[in-house]
Amino acid sequence: MAGEASAAPAPAALHPWWHGYLTRLVVTDVVAVGVAVFGAYVVRFDPAGGATVDGRLSPSYLLVSVLIMWLWVFALVAGRTQDRRLVGSGPEEYQRVASVTWRVFAAIAILAYLLRMEIGRGYLAIAFPLGLVLLLVGRFVWRQWLHRAWARGDGWKRILVVGHRGKVEMLLADLARRPGAGYRAVGVCLPAGEAADGRVGDVPVIGAVEQAAAMARELRVDAVAVVGSDKVTTHTVRQLGWDLEGSGIDLALAMSLTDVAGPRVIMQPVSGLPLVYVDEPRFTGPKYLLKSVVDWVSALLITAVLSPLLLAIAVTVKMSSAGPVLYRQSRVGVNGKAFQMLKFRSMVVGAHERLAEVLAAEGVEEVGLFYKPKNDPRVTRVGRVLRRYSLDELPQLLNVLRGEMSLVGPRPQIDAEVAQYDRHAGRRLLVKPGMTGLWQISGRNDVSPEEGIRMDVYYVENWSLFGDAIILARTARVLLSGEGAR
């Protein structure tokens, strides 16, 4: 098989969607960096004045700006921030852009020190944050464009899945749950002894493992994904890699361990054996102190900006129906500690006393995880509008300022819901509850309890500040559309 592939190699797999997307990324990156660098130059210096750097070496700031611009662009390319396997989904793309950017400016500071050049701090203080923001905004805009293309069925990364039928089914199910990743399985290759025809789910079985490379070339897929199996040995995988050489087709190995983010995974080759270490999740320390500081400062700024809206909602709630403006309810927070969560009142007074009546009307015997009545007669007319756009949740900014909640985290639940937790769901309580979370940007009330728990536990164990920023940005979009609200 390997000999045949070497003797008559198929043409390299094409990635037409990627060529266009890469061009857009590169052009946008160059424009963002250019605007940042020369914007800082124009703001800090007179373009016609020929300003020069102070120190032993004194080039003009115009020359320095040109050099910084192309150093920055080169670093973005060399740092593989445009890698096709990286862009389009997840926070890693944004994290790599930020990492490359701060490394560039750290290198500039070190070089300036060694050459005894005193580059203006104000100039760098404008170029660095402005460029980073423009780069991240550009990546976000093109990511939305790509997601819309995927929604139309364009630009999907076609993959061939290789491995034992049971594990192939699990991988296909994971891909189906994550359409935002942009992968579409077009075929399956099973080990010898398993049926070499038929289908696995909706995907056709097109051959045996030994035929995978030939079928990948014939179908012109973007990647071959291999899932573990006793019959798919390391020799088989190595030979598959040889057969794919020169084709432009990626070889991906799918780990059996799921819901673990990249920063917790460490690859350590030992004598040719690729050992994968998984760091245990941590729930205390400097990382969480930074999260608390960012939460508090952000909540204070958001409260100040939204104060006119908060006042208007308070007046509307007070005038619309009898009762207090704010509703306080006991919720379970970090480590099982109860606290009083605040909301704008969206129901009639005494609504909690009618819960059994509402459950009976919907044929429900007890409160389940994430349960909310579909047609709740206790909700006021104003309350329906507030709930649709989650405006009733805004007073929880005060809970964040009091240190009881975070901006992002698992949504806090009542005692009756927490009483139903198993060990898996109980991990939601290892961090502060949040005003928004993964479930809220993934369908809100349309998400099943099982999927909601899975997403919350994934967040608890793998959160990052970049991930929080992405969730907050997507939350704003979801709330404006009212998507999944009830």
UniProtKB/TrEMBL annotation:
| Keywords for this protein | Membrane, Transferase, Transmembrane, Transmembrane helix
In this chain the Bacterial sugar transferase domain maps to 291-480
Subcellular location, principal: membrane
Enumerate the InterPro entries for this protein.
Answer: Bact_transf, EPS_sugar_tfrase
Entry's Gene Ontology cellular component terms: membrane
One molecular function GO term is:
phosphotransferase activity, for other substituted phosphate groups
* Compartments, record wording: Membrane
Sequence intervals crossing the membrane: 21-41, 61-79, 100-116, 122-142, 296-317
Membrane topology of the entry:
Multi-pass membrane protein
Domain of life according to the entry: Bacteria
Which PANTHER family does UniProt cross-reference here?
COLANIC BIOSYNTHESIS UDP-GLUCOSE LIPID CARRIER TRANSFERASE, SLL5057 PROTEIN
Q: Which NCBIfam families match?
A: EPS_sugtrans
Q: Can you tell me which family this protein belongs to?
A: Belongs to the bacterial sugar transferase family.
Protein name in UniProt:
Polyprenyl glycosylphosphotransferase
